[in-house]
Amino acid sequence: MLICFHFNYLGVEKEKVLFIINPISGAKNKIRIPDLIKKHLDLKQFDFEISFTEAAKHAEKLTLDGIKSGFNKFIAVGGDGTINEIAGVLVNTSNHLGIIPSGSGNGLSRHLGIPLNPVEAIKNINKNKVLKIDSCSLNGRPFFCTAGVGFDAHVGKLFADSKVRGLNTYVKTTLSEFRKYNPDTYKITINDKVYLKEAFLITFANSAQYGNNAYIAPHADIQDGLLDVCIVKPFPKYKIVPIGIRLFKGTIDKSMYLEIIRAPEVKVERTSEGPLHVDGEPCHMGKELLIKLYTQSLGVLVP
């Protein structure tokens, strides 16, 4: 495990930290966050500014502008979608990502053990401890937790369109759509070997979980240079509850309906274009999908 420590010595210029707050991510009210930052951030180490996002992709622009202005730490106050926008700019740079988890799933934060409590998350930044993690891309679009096709991508689109967020809404949508969903057939190329698989869903996992402690790849290592390609085979409808229980207990890898293949790159061809999810955000792409992993390419502030 590669971890870097940065120390502030007397006379050394303070690091510049930009907090980027997504005011509408998740269900948490972020009105208190600026006051908590002023109270708990170590001002002997850091100078800081706070910006708020106003639209999709705004976090990405704020990060690019922040780099030009000399900031070297960027703190995402939001969910995995906000993190994705900021981190995508920071890959393969000397700048670092910090997180104050404020989304509905918080998959990357949970995997890295970053506190969900905002005060503790701010105190975590003060430790200035950096972990180099792998990053990934799907057809050139970056992701850091999971991406995928199939049933979860279908549900993810419906969930994103829902006016009510949270775990209960996700579970209700999942159960409702499961009854009428038809699995697809995929041509999967991994390590120069070609597989033809009928699959309920395929998840490309860099980290262990989707979020909310739903573990699709319980043993995924975010530093090992390998994707966990998780292929869920079609299963009888009465198995949905036991499989769901395994998902949240972290034992789905023991199910006969899940196959995991590890590789740094995978190509997937499906029968038609359609929805995907990338770090929990729905998107639409064509038939051919190329997923790549970039070893230890992003520095993240961790406990």
Question: Mind sketching the topology for me?
Answer:
Blueprint lengths: L2 E3 L9 E7 L11 H8 L5 E7 L5 H11 L4 E6 L1 H11 L5 E6 L5 H6 L5 H10 L1 E10 L2 E3 L2 E5 H11 L5 H12 L5 E7 L2 E7 L1 E5 L21 E6 L7 H10 L8 E6 L1 E6 L3 E5 L2 E5 L2 E14 L2
Parallel strand pairs: 2-3, 2-4, 4-5, 5-17
Antiparallel strand pairs: 1-6, 6-7, 6-17, 8-11, 8-15, 9-10, 9-14, 11-12, 12-13, 14-17, 15-16
Helix pairs in contact: 1-5, 2-3, 6-7
Short description:
By secondary structure, this protein is of the alpha+beta class. The chain has eight helices and 17 strands. The protein is 26% helix and 36% strand.
What does this structure look like?
This protein has helices at 33-40, 58-68, 80-90, 107-112, 118-127, 151-161, 167-178, 240-249; strands spanning 3-5, 15-21, 46-52, 73-78, 96-101, 129-138, 141-143, 146-150, 184-190, 193-199, 201-205, 227-232, 258-263, 265-270, 274-278, 281-285, 288-301. The model is unreliable at 1-9 (pLDDT under 50). The protein is globular. It has eight helices and 17 strands. It starts with a strand and ends with a strand. Strands 1, 2, 3, 4, 5, 6, 7, 9, 10, 14 and 17 form an eleven-stranded mixed β-sheet that branches. A six-stranded antiparallel β-sheet has the order 13-12-11-8-15-16, covered by helices on one side. It has two domains: 3-135, Rossmann fold (3-Layer(aba) Sandwich), CATH 3.40.50; 141-294, Tumour Suppressor Smad4. With 303 residues, it is an alpha+beta fold. The longest helix is centred in the middle third of the chain and has 12 residues, at 167-178. Helix 2 (58-68) runs parallel beside helix 3.
